[in-house]
Amino acid sequence: MKILIISEPRTGSSNLIKWFKLDDRFTIFRHELNINKINIQKDYKYNTDFLLVLVYYNGKDDLNEYINYFDKIICLYRENNKLQLESYVNSVSTFNWESNYLYKKMFLPKEELFLKNLKKRFKENFLKKYFSISYEELYNDKNVNKLINFIGIESCFLDKFPIGKKYRVDKTDVNLI
User: Which terminus of the chain is less hemmed in, N or C, by CB atoms within 10 Å?
Assistant: First the structure.
């Protein structure tokens, strides 16, 4: 089975992929760059039960032809726009996308506008068409079973799902770094 995850930025997709990597039934690809550079062909052979591809939505690429190749489409988004923006601004300004960081309030109007427009296009193009799950559902509400049920698998790694895992550390939590 071929599974595509289309993700907004700062939605927990890196942790999600790390969790799927625990399961040797998955072949996993992450593609942060332009979709046209992805070299997965329709006859691509994988030696596992599942091929999982994560694409970070950039708002520019037409994913329609690419989507048709997959059996299951999952859209990953974030409900809390404020926290998503803060995380995004931090990542853009520090180039730290996948490790702990001490949150410092920053304001980048260009990035805020970009993310707002990206979320709008993502919602219009994907959220009502395909299975969607939010960062909050996965990591705060402990509802990873919704995702597992959609894929149609049983997971022996549910106890290892990074519930509550976040990269952001506030000043009150500074001793956690």
Answer: C
Q: Is the pLDDT assigned to residue 175 strictly greater than 70?
A: no
Q: Flag the least confident range among 25-39, 50-64, 94-108, 134-148.
A: 25-39
Q: What is the pLDDT of residues 110-154, one digit of tens each?
A: 888 888 999 999 999 999 899 999 999 988 777 888 999 999 988
Beta-strand pair 26-31/72-77: unpaired
d(CA 162, CA 76): 16
Range of the domain at 156: 2-167
Q: What is the CATH number of the domain that holds 74?
A: 3.40.50.300
Residue 130 counted as domain residue? yes
Partners of residue 11 on adjacent β-strands: none
